[in-house]
Amino acid sequence: PGQAAMYAGLQELGVANGEDLKETLTNCTEPLKAIEQFQTENGVLLPSLQSALPFLDLHGTPRLEFHQSVFDELREKLLERVSAIALEGKVEERYKKLEDLLEKSFSLVKMPSIQPVVMCVMKHLPKVPEKKLKLVMADKDLYKACAVEVKRQIWQDNQALFGDEVSPLLKQYILEKENTLFSNEISFLQNFFSPSPKTRRQGEVVQKLTQMIGKNVKLYDMVLQFLRTLFLRTRNVHYCTLRAELLMSLHDLEISEICTVDPCHKFTWCLDACIREKFVDNKRARELQGFLDGVKKGQEQVLGDLSMILCDPFAINTLALSTIRHLQDLVGQDTLPRESPDLLLLLRMLSLGQGGWDMIDSQVFKEPKMEAELITKFLPMLMSFVVDDHTFNVDQKLPSEEKGPIPYPSTIPEAFTKFLQENRIACEIGLYYILHITKQRNKNAFLRLLPALVETFSDLAFSDIFLHLLTGNLTLLADEFALEEFCTSVFDGFFLTACSRKENVHRHVLRLLLHLHHKVAPAKLEALQKALEPTKQSGEAVKELYTQLTEKLELRKPSPAEVTEAPSMELPLPTVPTPAPR
C-alpha cells in the first residue's frame, strides 16, 4: 500500500508509474531495452542532459539520487511560485490561476512528494471548491495535513467537527486554572491573580484558539457559543475569563474584522486596563458607565455578554479590591456609601457580573436590581469595622489609666452574618474585606470575622479562589500558628467544618499545612494529622497531599537518642580558627 500511495493519481494524469514499468517488464522479451526505453520516455526531457547523465554514472551517482534532487529543487521553485501568484495581479486573476492549478494537481494530493504543493495551493485560496473540501474532510490523513486556512473553511460549515477540535483545548484551559489554584506554592506575593492580562493571553490555549479562528467571525461566534453553553452547564467561571482573553488576544493582533462586530469590545478593552492596574480609576469608571448606560432598547441582549465579561474572576477581583479601597477612603472623608457615585458603579458592575449565570440561563436581559440595604446597612457596617480598628489602634497608644486597656471588640453584628448568608454581593465584598485585613496581618479583626464564614451565600467562603487567596495571606500570620487558640479558630472553627463534605477544602488545608507545619503548635498538629486523614472516598489529590505531609512530619520527628539527651539551652559557639600571625 505504501508503494501505491507513492504513485497515487499519476495514471489519471497520463504519467507512467511503477505499476506501468512492472507491466512492461512482465510482457517484454528484452528487459534491458524496455528499461532504456522507459527511461527515455519518462526522464527529464532536456537534450543537453542526455550527454551529461553518463558523466554522473562515472561518479557513481545513482539516477534516483539525481532525479530526486531535481524533483526537490523543482518542488521548492513551484511552492515559491504559488505563494507569489497568491500576491500578484488582480484578485480574480490570481485566484483563477490557483484554481486551475488545483484542478490539475488535486488528483496527486495523496502522493507524499507532491502533497505539499497541492496543500500550498489550497492554503492560498480564500474559497476552496466545496467538492475538494469534502474529499479532504473525508480522509483523516489529508485533513490532518492541510493548513489551518483550509481547515477554517471546513470548520465554518461543520460545527461538530470544530467542536471536536476545540473541546480538548477548553478542557486543558480549565485544568491549567485549577492547577494554579491548587498549586503547592503558597505565597501572598504570587497568587492566581498575579499574571498580567497580556501575559495570560500568551498562554498556549488562547494562542491556539486565536490561530484557529483567524479573521473568521463565524468561527469566533461558534467558540463564544461553546463557552456560553459550558458556562451554563458547569457554572465554571474560568470560561468567562477565556471569553475575555480571546477577545483581547484578537484585539492585540488588530483583527478588526472580529473586534468591530463584538459589541463588548470597547467595554472589555477598558476593563482590561483596570484589571492590569488592579483598580478602577475615576476616568475609566466614567467610560465603563457610559457603555452600560448606552445599551439601547432592543439591544439588551448585549447585557448577557457583558455580564459574562464581568463574571470573569479577574474582573470580580479588580472590582472587589477597588470597592474595599473606596470604603476606606470614605471612612477618611466622613462620607456615606450612598453618596459615592464611583462606589455605586462598582456595585452595579459586581452585581451584573455575579448575575451573569442567571441572566444567560433565564434569557431575561436586564440589569439585576440592587438591594438598598446593601448600600444603606451592609457597607456602613464594614466601614464601622474599619473605624473599630482605628479606634483600637489609637487606644493602644494612649497612656493606660487605672481601668486598664480596652479589649478589641470580639462580637460581630448578627446582621453581618445574615448578609453574608443571603446576599451574594455582600458576601463577595465581605470575603474581600477579610482577605484585606489578613493581608494587613490584622489578627484581631481576622479572628473576630472568621466565624461569619462558616455559612455563606452558596458556600462562597469555601470556593477555590477565596481559599487560594486566604491560604496565601495566612502565611503572613505564620507565627500565630504556634498558639493553640489561633489554630483552633482557623482549623476547627473554619476549615474543618467543611472538610468532610467538600474535597476542595480538604485539599486547601493540606496545602496550608504543607507550607506551615513547622509553625503549628505540636499538639495541634497531631490532632490535625488525625482529623485530615483521607477516607476511602477521598480523591487521589487529597491522598497524595496527605502522603507528602506525613513524609514531611516524619522527617521532623527527632530520633529516640536525641530525645533522651537534655536539650542545651545555649547555642554552641562555632569554632573559629585562630588567624595565623603575619
Task: Describe the model.
The chain is mostly helical. Among the domains are: 44-154, no CATH class; 374-396 and 411-552. The chain is built from 32 helices and no strands. The chain starts with a helix and ends in an 18-residue tail after the last helix. One of its GO terms (cellular component) is NELF complex. Pfam families: COBRA1.
Keywords:
single chain; 582 residues; mainly alpha; 32 helices; 67% helix; elongated
Mind sketching the topology for me?
Blueprint: H1 2-6, H2 18-26, H3 31-42, H4 47-58, H5 63-85, H6 91-105, H7 115-123, H8 130-138, H9 140-145, H10 148-155, H11 159-181, H12 197-201, H13 204-213, H14 217-234, H15 238-252, H16 256-259, H17 265-277, H18 282-293, H19 302-310, H20 313-333, H21 341-354, H22 356-362, H23 372-397, H24 414-422, H25 424-439, H26 443-449, H27 464-474, H28 484-499, H29 503-516, H30 522-531, H31 540-556, H32 560-564
Helix pairs in contact: 5-7, 6-7, 11-13, 11-14, 13-15, 14-15, 15-17, 17-18, 17-20, 19-21, 19-22, 20-21, 20-23, 20-25, 23-25, 24-25, 25-27, 27-29, 28-29, 28-30, 29-31
Compact description:
The chain has 582 residues and is an all-alpha fold. It has 32 helices and no strands.
Total number of strands: 0
Query: N-to-C terminal Cα separation, in Å?
Result: 87 Å
DSSP helical segment count: 32
The fraction of residues assigned to DSSP E strands is under 5%
Could you tell me the mean pLDDT? 87
The secondary-structure class comes to mainly alpha
The major pleated sheet works out as: none
User: Poorly predicted ranges (pLDDT <50, ≥5 residues)?
Assistant: none
